[in-house]
Amino acid sequence: MFSSAGFINPIGSEELKSNGFILRSGLYRFSVFTPQAGSWRWFGETKSLAPENVAPSDISGESAIKLRWVVEEVGGVSAAKSIFKLQFSERPDFVGGVSDVTEAEFCGPSSFWCYVDKIKPVNHKRNLAVEYEFLIKPASASLNTVYFFRLFDTERNRPIALGDGATFPSITLGSTLVAFSLDGSPSISFGSLDPFKSKEVSQRLTITSKGANGYRLFLFQRQGLLGRSSGAEIAPIAGTNEEPKNWASACADVSRGCYGYHSGDKSLSENSERFARKDTYARLEEKPKEIAFSPFPVAEDKINVIFKAEIGDEQPADTYESSVAYIIVPTF
């Protein structure tokens, strides 16, 4: 009676001899490689993220994290040369939706989780137990989603079973996605406008986005540039966000005034460079329009938005006011 390949140890036998050969018969036992996954713990750069066998939550989506996991060999065969990889799923039973953690050199926008460094044993424990360290990072992993991880034996093409009382590690990414601020006062002023003399004012925005594919920033107005008493308007220019124009052509008729903006981001989504030239202006609209974009996560990205106005000699004297709003969207 034989089990699968391994180290053969005779349990008991009978020996038959003849002139040409010796026949040994009996029961033989094979020592089969039988790894089991045991205790685990998550670590950040400098400290543990949670106690042993406890899943952390609200973890930052921008930093690498370490998973330390003990593998114990219960069949008596050393696991020193074994090769394991991590797999993940949103299901704790791993029935469907199972994917490999992506190798560092192949990590891209479509990856959910990626290795940062090679897998390595970090601590040889009692008997044949070994603690392995997996340094990984989220790429486009979804926020507020629980991810479960399991070990997979690449040499034998099968997942590693859990030991008695063991569980699969899990982790949840936090919801702090984006930070946005205006440098200086949120209110800006053109001051006094003289006929046929344009004026510019600007706002500087600072953006941090943890989205795997960066962010998109939109601008819209709640009302036009209207006179507080007269209700007269300094008219929007002819240029649009989709087709901005230089100021001279966008403000060809200054009799009703001209009012518009320029984005300081030279490259928008879909490789658009419509604001790449400095003298390009668009009208403000009530529908949000893209004015800044990054395809990657950013920290303290600076964007200047320039507002420009000009009036003719027939513009009613008044105090003109408008209100604009920004919408920032992290992308994954």
Kindly list the characteristics that best describe this protein:
five-stranded antiparallel beta sheet, Immunoglobulin-like, six-stranded mixed beta sheet, 1 helix, 2 domains, 332 residues, rod-shaped, 1% helix, 21 strands
Helix proportion range = under 10%
DSSP E strands, number: 21
Low-confidence stretches: 1-30
Distance between the termini: 56 Å
CATH class of the largest domain: Mainly Beta
Secondary-structure element string: EEEEEEEEEEEEEEEEEHEEEE
Radius of gyration: 33 Å
Q: Please identify, by name, the CATH architecture of the largest domain.
A: Sandwich
Per CATH, what is the topology of the largest domain?
Immunoglobulin-like
- The total number of structural domains is 2
Q: Strand-residue fraction?
A: 35-45%
The DSSP helix count reads: 1
Shape call: rod-shaped
- What oligomerization state is this entry in? single chain
Your description of this structure?
- There is one protein chain.
- This protein has about 325 residues and is mostly beta strands.
- It has 2 domains: about 35-170, Immunoglobulin-like, CATH 2.60.40; about 180-330, Sandwich (Immunoglobulin-like).
- The protein is about 0% helix and about 45% strand.
- It has one helix spanning about 245-250; strands at about 5-15, 20-30, 35-45, 65-75, 85-90, 100, 115, 120-125, 130-140, 145-155, 160, 160, 170, 180-185, 200-210, 215-225, 235, 260-265, 290-295, 300-310, 320-330.
- Strands 3, 4, 7, 8, 9 and 12 form a 6-stranded mixed beta sheet that branches. Strands 5, 6, 10, 11 and 13 form a 5-stranded antiparallel beta sheet that branches.
- Strand 8 and strand 9 form a beta hairpin.
- The longest helix is centred in the last third of the chain and has 4 residues, at about 245-250.
- The protein is rod-shaped.
- The relative contact order is 0.14.
- Residues about 1-30 have low confidence and may be disordered.
